[in-house]
Amino acid sequence: MTSGTPGADTPGSDTCCGTLLVLGAGPKGVAVAAKARALTDLGLPAPRVVLIDEHAVGAHWLPVGGWTDGRHRLGTSPEKDVGFPYRNGPDRAHATAVNRRMLDYSWMSFLVEHHTYTEWIDRGRPHPHHHVWARYLEWVARRAQTDVLIGRVTEIDADDDCWRLTLTAPDGAQHEVTGDGLMITGPGSSAETMLEHPRMLSVARFWELSAAREIPASSRAAVIGGGETAGSALDELARHDVMTISAISPGATIYTRGESYFENAMFSDPTGWPALSAAERRDVIRRTDRGVFSVRVQENLLEDNRIHHMQGRVTGARSVGDSIRLTLENPGRPVSEHTFDLVVDATGGRPLWFLELFSPGAADLLELALRTRPTTVAAENAIGHDLAVEGLDPPLYLPNLAGFAQGPGFPNLSCLGELSNRVLRGAQQRGVHDRSAAGTGAR
Known about the structure:
Belongs to the lysine N(6)-hydroxylase/L-ornithine N(5)-oxygenase family. It comes from Gordonia caeni. Pathway: Siderophore biosynthesis; mycobactin biosynthesis. It is an enzyme of class 1 (oxidoreductase). By secondary structure, the protein is α/β, with parallel strands linked by helices. Helix 1 crosses helix 2 (95-102). The strands form five sheets. A six-stranded parallel beta sheet has the order 1-4-3-2-8-19, with helices on one face. A five-stranded parallel beta sheet has the order 9-18-10-11-14. The protein has helices spanning 27-41, 95-102, 107-113, 117-122, 130-143, 203-211, 228-237, 261-268, 278-288, 295-302, 360-370, 376-381, 403-406, 416-429, and strands spanning 2-4, 19-23, 48-53, 147-150, 152-158, 163-168, 174-179, 181-184, 200-202, 218-224, 242-249, 255-256, 292-293, 307-311, 313-320, 323-329, 336-340, 342-345, 396-397. It is globular. The chain is 30% helix and 21% strand. The two termini are 12 Å apart.
């Protein structure tokens, strides 16, 4: 892994030919980088992948990323690693060879190299803590000799040929990095809340106070959100001095992510997904991915009689002295208000957070491709088989928005290998590959 701040000698800093930029050095970006390396090692065409992150590889699984304290456990099995499901490949004629190469980047290989594989098996294959998953991702990036740039992206610009990202390095210097493809990952900021109030905590602020053991004592607390971010916050909040905790989400109850073969197979192999109706796809996503807790978190919460579910979509929040009054809406019912003295806003990131970084020119290109003003629904409907926005050149890959159109596993960790297949196959078809390395086996 090559890591540093961008400069004149950085890949992609002076030319966009053969470069796929990835905003976010998390599991999706690392999976694409590792697969591209596997292809290049076999002398097959692949882009030069450059990961860009404000903090580090796997930052969202570390305290520095603001989404966790690193001590909670991964909700997905780690065996669904950067190569899973090891099915076909971006170059189908050489799929077996590529997948064999990807085994070098597997979770099992990581454990074997660190002499912990036997212990992990004997302990029943436990889900790793978030910080261990981050170590795995960093190990993959280093082993794949991935180009990683550390810096905060302040603007995303584009024309008909290239994406241009302006980065502010840790030392404050600004640089431009270019590429003829861009993949955007991650949920955006973890520091946002719906109300500025000392007792309404963002996800980042919650974990900051938790690490310092400074979570305010509370008689009535609430966590807004029904996904894994909210689940981890509830799991942690239950360890602090709180009398009652309300888990607020729109669903009729707190749903658990099922682990049956039928559900898992739909995440691992999305081949038949487009054949489902729009209503069926929305229903599957609602029941199995969005607004669900892992089985482990659900079991922990069931043991604590201070925690209960409150149904409703939070549509408003206002300060009432030292307390916070939330407005909850449910279809067909009167609007209700509830007062809490501690609230954690764990609703997760905004799907289109990256639009704030788009220049007017880049925003115009996206709007022309969507044929409408960018909205979450419009973007979801426009994601093609290669996880890029259809009709947009240069290509913009948005796996976090691909769940509805292409399969429920793409926005999460359920099929990272298939995600990299789709993106790299699309890059090959669009001619986004490192022409200097193709056919040589050298990088």
